[in-house]
Amino acid sequence: MGGGGQQTESSEPAKGDGVGPGGGRGGSAVYTWEEVQKHCHRGDQWLVIDRKVYNITQWAKRHPGGIRVISHFAGEDATEAFVAFHPDPNFVRKFLKPLLIGELAPTEPSQDQGKNAVLVQDFQALRDRLEREGLLRARPLFFSLYLGHILLLEALALGLLWVWGTSWSLTLLCSLMLATSQAQAGWLQHDYGHLSVCKKSSWNHVLHKFVIGHLKGASANWWNHRHFQHHAKPNVFSKDPDVNSLHVFVLGDKQPVEYGIKKLKYMPYHHQHQYFFLIGPPLLIPVYFHIQILRTMFLRQDWVDLAWSMSFYLRFFCCYYPFFGFFGSVALISFVRFLESHWFVWVTQMNHLPMEIDHERHQDWLTMQLSATCNIEQSTFNDWFSGHLNFQIEHHLFPTMPRHNYHLVAPLVRALCEKHGVPYQVKTLQKGMTDVVRSLKKSGDLWLDAYLHK
Questions:
Q1: With pLDDT > 90 as the criterion, what percentage of the chain qualifies?
Q2: Whole-angstrom Cα distance, residue 53 to residue 312?
Q3: Which of 101, 126, 305, 446 has the largest CB neighbor count within 10 A?
Q4: Is 139:402 a contact under the CB 8 Å cutoff?
């Protein structure tokens, strides 16, 4: 973080603190939670980190992670999110200093919104333990081997065509191998994206650009700004873009009823568990994501990411044009995206869609993440198939943790959840997938009941 925030006219310190208007500019003012919570609007945003109060109104526009993710914590305690997202908090804190306007009054609790202080402290103690044991540090060899197997799949797919020609069977096999490499590259760029937070010159940041840009044809900045919102407020309407279904689906238990009461019928929602198969998995990556990525790069004038993205398509057409021609190559990449999209949707949705989807409830980090995520049973296949996102709980609690350590941390997280009565769900791969359809049907039925009878 960086830049200087200034106190707005409404930023008066709490009554009785002996500081006049504007006195918080040097960080000497004290505030109550009630005062902080008033500053949660687009043009007036404060947040609290480790009991320090910061005015982020101007800085939010320059936040490297995007304006939205930091604005989601306006008027709130952002301590747990700040620690979770920044691998090197000390590096970031120096940029926070100009934004400091004061601190919480000594009589105020450290947690806002009535959060469980003991649970918050126990979770922080667990994180401290993991840091001491080195479980938040990545092993470059693991990711090097993983990248190697992706490049090998790409090379084998092209090699088959060079050696054996373009029969239908070999073309289908080539497509499957390319879709596999694309899916696995998706999980790998996901790793690099989390590991490169606030370390723009690190090796993993450059590799993130390479994997998502050159190997997948997408945008690193687009992914970061979108995905970090998901982690900050998972399954929270208006804050998690992954549950912004653009009126195509109604999700959870509350949104369907709200739509039904208002007599909103953009789609026949009581059939959404059926049309999901037609417009969900097949179209998310080939259509929606591609339009969104291109639109974002041009609107933000993100020419670096655009160049990385174009390098993918240049390489792809150079490799496959000799075999399929221009239109044949377009058909090939479209089919590969079609297959990849199915893989991506099922892996990402089985951990979240059947879970609680609601409006903002101001929960502590552990409770919020566990209510929105579940795990899929561990196996060699499940680990590879999901890019270790079968450990979605551990990934959401510690987003900068390298995936090869999830299985070591899972028993500790489960024990902490049992201590505090927080549900820790683990499903089979089959149940995780079928629950996606069941949750859509349940939500559709709730909508129909509310639409017809309320």
A1: 83
A2: 44
A3: 101
A4: yes
Which whole-number Å values give the CA distances from 304 to 34, 162, 301, in the listed order? 43, 33, 9
Residue scoring higher pLDDT (124 or 94): 124
The Cα 105–Cα 6 span in angstroms is 20
Question: Taking a C-beta distance cutoff of 8 angstroms, is the pair 314, 239 a contact?
Answer: no
Tokens of 137: 């540090």
CA torsion through residues 81, 8, 57, 26, sign: negative
DSSP 8-state assignment for residue 398: S
3-state DSSP call for residue 46?
strand
Compute CA 170 distance to the chain's CA centroid, rounded to the nearest angstrom. 36
Burial of 56 (0-12, 13-18, 19+ CB in 10 A): buried
List the one residue out of 394, 439, 437, 436 whose CA is nearest residue 417.
394
User: CATH for 23-114, among 3.10.120.10, 3.40.50.1360, 3.90.1230.10, 1.10.240.10?
Assistant: 3.10.120.10
* Whether the predicted pLDDT of 14 surpasses 80: no
Separation CA 447–CA 249 (nearest Å): 10
CB-based contacts of 323, cutoff 8 Å, min separation 6: 161, 166
- 172 pairs with which residues across the strands? none
pLDDT digits (tens, 9 = 90+) for 174-203: 999 999 999 999 999 999 988 876 554 467
Domain spans in the chain, listed from the N-terminal domain onward: 23-114, 116-454
Strands 44-49 and 52-55: antiparallel
Q: What is the pLDDT of residue 15?
A: 38
- What the block records as the tokens of 51 is 């009991």
Cα 222 to Cα 45, 64, 343, 425: the distances in Å are 24, 12, 20, 31
Q: How far is CA 421 from CA 123, 415, 426, in A?
A: 13, 10, 15
Task: Give, rounded to a whole angstrom, the gap between the first and last alpha carbons of the chain.
Answer: 48
Token pair 């925030």 is found at 5
**Whether the predicted pLDDT of 381 surpasses 90:** yes
Q: Cα 100 from chain centroid?
A: 28
- Which pair of tokens denotes residue 156? 């084998």
Residue 327: how many other CB atoms lie within 10 Å: 8
